[in-house]
Write a structure and sequence with these properties.
This protein has helices at residues 7-84, 88-112, 114-120, and strands at 124-129, 133-139, 148-152, 156-162, 183-189, 200-204, 207-213. The chain has 226 residues and is α+β, with helices and mostly antiparallel strands.
């Protein structure tokens, strides 16, 4: 015997089918949206990966440049140190001290003037230059050559003199004191680089003469005038 559905049941079944179709359609749309968003996320991740890779390459490149520059500076330092007969650490320390003294001298000269500076520095010196050498002549009296110590670097010369500390008369006090006593030191900055290993010095009749061969000789070229 066939079962005949009533109109209400048929309408209800059709409504249910319609809802099922709507649910299926909605699910398909959501699935498509999820798939689309997943694709966008994946694309964004890939772009980020590319950016990170590019940044890493740039960092590696910069690191390589810094390493290469540091290597060049190290080789230059070792070369200059060898020419001066010192190890690199001694050269770096000497250069720092030299720069500090030079800056201090510039400040003192700016405030006190060159005349004031020259009257306080001892020993008194002349600095001469030829095509091949730098020559320093210093007046030093009251000492023997054993009391004079000379330090030579590529860019400066330091003269240290050990004078007697003894006062020539007992129970006497100074009313005026212009002569040198104790340890006197003066550093002379050079206008050009020199070969420190080839430096020579002579002390005769209270005059110290230091001869410093230049690394690069000045060659005078004659130019014809048309």
């Amino acid at each position: 015997m066939a079962i005949v559905e009533s109109k209400e049941e048929m309408k209800k079944n059709m409504d249910n089918k319609g809802k099922i179709d709507e649910i299926k359609e909605g699910s398909a749309e959501k699935k498509e949206d999820i798939k689309k968003k997943a694709g966008e996320v994946k694309k964004g991740i890939n772009e980020k990966k590319e950016d990170i890779s590019e940044n890493i390459e740039q960092v590696k490149e910069k690191a390589g440049e810094v390493k290469e520059e540091a290597s060049k500076q190290k080789e230059q330092l070792e070369k200059e140190s060898e020419e001066e007969g010192r190890n690199p650490a001694e050269k770096v320390l000497s250069d720092l001290i030299s720069n500090f003294r030079q800056r201090t001298g510039e400040i003192n000269e700016a405030y006190g003037g060159s005349e004031s500076k020259n009257t306080t520095d001892k020993p008194l010196i002349d600095v001469l230059e030829t095509n091949e050498d730098i020559i320093i002549i210093a007046d030093i009296s009251g000492v023997k050559k054993e009391d004079i110590d000379i330090g030579v670097s590529k860019t400066n010369v330091t003269i240290t003199t050990n004078f007697s500390d003894e006062v020539p008369f007992e129970d006497a006090k100074f009313l005026n004191k212009e002569r040198s006593y104790g340890v006197q030191k003066r550093t002379i900055d050079l206008s050009t680089s020199i070969r420190s290993k080839e430096a020579t010095a002579k002390f005769k009749k209270c005059t110290l003469t230091i001869k410093l061969p230049k690394i690069e000789k000045d060659v005078i070229t004659k130019v014809e005038v048309d």
